[in-house]
Amino acid sequence: MGQVIRLFSDYLSQYFKTKLSYRANFFSELVSNLVFELMRLAFIGIVFQHVDKLKEWTLWEIVFIYGYFMIPYALFSVFFGFWDFNERYIIRGEMDRILTRPVNPLAQVCLESIAPDRIFSAITGFIIMIYAAFQLKLSIAWYDPFVFVLLIISSVMIYAGVYTAIAAVSFFSDSRTGIAPMIWNIQNYGQYPVDVYNNIIRFILTWILPFAFVGLYPSAFFLRKAEWYTYTMLTPVMGIVFFLIGLVVWNLGLKKYSGAGS
Amino acid sequence: MLKLYAELIRIRFLTMLAYRVNYYSGIIIYAINIGAYYFLWGSIYADNTTLAGMTLTQMTSYVAIAWMSRAFYFNNIDNEIGMEVREGKVAVEMLRPYNYLSVKAAQALGEGIFRFAFFAIPGLILIRLFIDFPFPSTFSAWGLYLISLLCGFVINTQINLLTGVLTFFFMRNEGLIFAKRMIVDLLAGVIVPISFFPGWAQSVLGYLPFQAINYYPSMIFAGVIQADKALQVILIQLVWIVVLFLPITWLWRKARHNLVVQGG
After folding, report:
1. Enclosing domain of residue B129
2. Which of A151, A159, A224, B251 could form a disulfide with A218 if both were Cys (CB 3.0 to 4.6 A apart)?
3. What ipTM, to 2 d.p.?
4. This prediction's pTM
């Protein structure tokens, strides 16, 4: 573990060296991420020009959920950026290089794709959430910050579990699967309250690809929506379960892996 | 000369055809997005019969066709130009006896034909199986939609060429290209029809070419813009096509003098 942390700081400094050598592009990437987040907010804003409520949700409640939704995803994508895992590690055979080194392979793959600047999205999300909370005049209890940290960690673990498992699918099939972008698009369903969708989608977002646990269910606790509390309390459980599933699939895949043969 | 470009279009079409399996997942991704907005709009309308002059049925048509139009006009030539500038390949390209930007435009057209036949049309049929929405009822409405869509394709390609050429000045351009893609999706009306925007935004957008990419053709398809108005809208698109040639020519002239070949 200590070794991984030491490696982390080395990778971090390398990351900033490469990024800052193209400074203009680094900043335009930051700006474009911000544009991406603000666009989704713009959609919410535009819609609420025409209606007062979306199901039973008001504008600021939806904005609050969206703010929460941004934070775990941003924290997760600081450490997880191997969207091209199949292409880079399996097809091009980089996995063989990873396996010859005396550090946990999953940790190595994570380290090679860290993107610390993604943390800015988490800050933006936090600001959006707090602003919405003020608009809603939400009460804050002494335990809220602790619950918040616990729920955020749980949501991050759900992302980590789901996407590690998806990446590990590449161990079983050498060909390009294109699953990850599909899952990413389904994940975006999670930024809105799940009750706007039909029952089948709601079921999928709760139990199969649990992206309702990275948005609505945890935020419902702070919005004091008692009817969702059961799901809020399930969030840490789902986090642990899905994280373990991710690790198990990854380890199974690693055992199965035999090199691309080039 | 025309033969050269016809050949370029053909080659790009065949290249895309060889990788068509990659686009099957693309169809599913578009279906996922259309599905999300279909349910979202259903909840937004709730018991309103019309919002911003559109019925829910028209909105459903609009959402489906806006994404499927995007499946056709979308291309990555801005990224390709960026890559070729960054890797220094552009130097070789510019030594060749053709116009670099016209080549890129021809490749975009080859890709567009592929996307139309293997992405947009099967996608539209697939979506229609799951979601019920009306197709245009007359041949003229179909014709006007397709003409308008083609104009939208040309305008989108022109904007991509502009963004791509900017790499000549910035060296690396991925951030800007990504941001541009987002902005075009919003301002072209893929995510929400322009008629939903607040009044001030609508009047600003009236002076920009983005809504000519997707909003106009999709409104024709959804039956919100009727035949007489449609011709007017297509005329606006044609004007934009002509106008956009000016900045492209100007920037391209500057870019050639500015070129720094990286690597090699």
Report:
1. 2-258
2. A151
3. 0.86
4. 0.90
